[in-house]
Amino acid sequence: MGLLPIALAYLALRWLSLEKISKIIGIFKSRGLRHITVSEADIAWESVRKSSFYFLGRIACLELSLAFVLFALMRRQSSTWCVGVATEPIRAHAWVEVDGKPFREQDGLEHSFRKMLVV
Known about the structure:
- This protein is α+β, with helices and mostly antiparallel strands.
- It has one domain (about 5-119).
- It has helices at about 5-15, 20-30, 40-50, 60-75, 110; strands at about 35, 75-80, 80-85, 90-100, 100, 115-119.
- Helix 1 crosses helix 4.
């Protein structure tokens, strides 16, 4: 079940800009989806994570987090996709928030990264 969102995320990130992807996600989220619960998020994360091992392309935080959001959207559930940057050292990271908190991320993530994109 998680392989389709992985493939869609992989292709979208190579063919579309983050702005275009954000607009598409925003359109789907505006259609009255219910917020994903933590237990449902656990299922979505495990499905996407396990499926990523069968995909031959690069799968890192950007692809995994977008695949998670797509998995949830396919189940008519809403989550928040975030992309942020940090300095010293300069780095970027993408993650998902559930109930306003980073899901399955290390503590203090919200203090380390400045959100540049939130959908």
